[in-house]
Amino acid sequence: MKYIDKNEEDVVLAKRLRDGEAFPFSCHDGLSCFTECCRNLNLFLYPYDVLRLKNRLEISSERFLQDYVDMVMREGNYFPDLLLRMADDDRTCPFLNKSGCIVYEDRPDTCRTFPLEQGIMFNGPKGKSTDIYFFKPPDFCLGQHEARQWTTESWSEDQGAVTYHKMTARWSEVKAMFQSDPWGLEGPSGPKGKMSLMATYNMDSFHDFVFQSTFLKRYKVKREILKRISADEEALLRFGFEWLKFFLWGMKSQYLKLRR
Ligand code: SF4
Ligand code: SF4
């Protein structure tokens, strides 16, 4: 996911796909580049990716984060980025085997979107965001020379990426707010930072936090929202984003308010 400032639009226009613009692509195991794109890569994981993958592997969020994730704090940001931990030797994806991707139905957003890259353009520091897409496969990717044509919409639908893109766009709005420091003296590894990581990347612990701590004594949450988030982790994740905006930046929420 790229963050594009409105002022940068002219710089990246050449690579941007316009609405309805077609691009050629087809990927299949008959191509000599098959699985090349799963090696020697940096793969960023977004909150919905982690949710889908930990369920696919039937392990807890905590275990997934311990065993499969590296965290990096990039300059100019106050929330870590999560990267899938690659195999040590040639930085191959841990989910690649001889026949291909073993988590294919739950592969991350970036894998579904490839050979496109999703960008989020903001019209101001807290303005509304717009999804934009770039077509820029690496030279080794032979799928770009195939005849089949797609648009960004038809490609997203074909790849089962529609929900992923919506969840990534929601997350990107929250993530962009971390370009200023919300932590104060306690820093990103303090209690607020840990809770923020939990509310976005650790749905098992966040579920316990909402339903088994004093959370509901402190926050009033609409009954229908509570019912939904108790049984649906995707809804719980959306609630996590909403809670963070309220908790860290005091933004008004339709989901919850403080009890008096
Ligand atoms: S065509 Fe591109 S996406 Fe498909 S396997 Fe080859 S490198 Fe990967
Ligand atoms: S998750 Fe699957 S598609 Fe994505 S890089 Fe790994 S093996 Fe390839």
Distance between the termini: 40 Å
Which sheet architecture does the biggest sheet show?
4 strands, mixed
Q: What is the H/E string? A: EHEEEHHEEEEHEEEHHHHHEHHE
**Ligands:** iron/sulfur cluster
Mean pLDDT: 91
C-alpha Rg (nearest Å)? 19 Å
How many domain regions? 2
Low-pLDDT ranges: 3-7
Structural class by secondary-structure content: alpha+beta
- Number of DSSP helical runs: 11
Characterize this entry briefly:
The protein is an alpha+beta fold. The chain has helices at 9-12, 47-56, 61-68, 109-113, 152-158, 162-177, 191-201, 203-212, 215-218, 223-231, 233-249; strands at 2-5, 16-17, 23-24, 44-45, 69-72, 81-84, 96-97, 100-101, 116-122, 129-135, 149-150, 219-221, 256-258.
Structure description:
This protein is α+β, with helices and mostly antiparallel strands. It has two domains: 2-177, no CATH class; 184-258, no CATH class. Helices cover 39% and strands 17% of the residues. It has helices spanning 9-12, 47-56, 61-68, 109-113, 152-158, 162-177, 191-201, 203-212, 215-218, 223-231, 233-249, and strands at residues 2-5, 16-17, 23-24, 44-45, 69-72, 81-84, 96-97, 100-101, 116-122, 129-135, 149-150, 219-221, 256-258. A hairpin with a 6-residue loop joins strand 9 and strand 10 (129-135). Helix 2 (47-56) crosses helix 3 (61-68) and helix 10 (223-231) crosses helix 11 (233-249). The longest helix has 17 residues, at 233-249. The radius of gyration is 19 Å and the shape is globular. The protein binds iron/sulfur cluster (2 copies). Residues 27, 31, 33-37, 114, 141-143 line the site of one iron/sulfur cluster.
